[in-house]
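Holo prediction — inosine 5'-triphosphate.
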Amino acid sequence: MPATAENCITIVLATANRDKVKELRPLLETISPLFNVVTLHELGVEVEIEETEETLEGNALLKARAIFALLSVRFPFMIALADDTGLEVEALHGAPGVYSARFAPVADGQAPTYQDNVRHLLYCMEGMTNREARFRTVVALKGTLPSPEGSFSFEHTAEGVVKGSITRKEQGDKGFGYDPLFLVQTTGKTYAQMSMTEKNRLSHRSLAVQQAISYLKDILQQKSAPLIDTNTRP
Ligand code: ITT
């Protein structure tokens, strides 16, 4: 079936991080042309969701639920997809982990930049020989879709993990966040030395998205749900 505006499922990316959007959109669109991926920015939605949970799973669900609650009036059939990601460093007992975005100390009311966090991580790991780390993404889906037996709702989380190590200085200028410090052993490159296509081929985010999509395909098949978007266009 050729994908048209009328036979796509609307997936709203529940993130304010434009760098994540740049990676998520091609991942989802490559997996199936039947997903119509829209961002909060494109929908004119500006919302700050406070990450109050202590796990990636908790925060991913919190973001997906908040965006679903906000937009399900506008889109009766949609999926909100959120991503919560953490860099877990073995020698730091899993830090920065769920606090990866807020790792470097900054003045009250300020948010650290990527560069602040990168410098702070190098500082915390000065002299450490154990550089082992992993990137972990939890993708949360919350949706309501039509099916021959009436609409059905679901909530699901999927995880992607990539092991690597923390370099002693920044390497590469692509990507975002901690990418210049995260060396993927199998490639001999940091994420920041990879093109986005290369990173998307093997990243924590791409593994989590693939799991989420395979869940989605299973549930659509189980419910014999048609890939038809009956929403009014925004
Ligand atoms: P949203 O909650 O709006 O999605 P966020 O930037 O707060 O955006 P996270 O809490 O999931 O997202 O991410 C925490 C931080 O981890 C993020 O700000 C980056 O510094 C870093 N990060 C996330 N994904 C990354 C990746 O693929 N490569 C490098 N750093 C990443």
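READOUT: Helices lie at 18-31, 56-71, 114-124, 196-202, 204-222.
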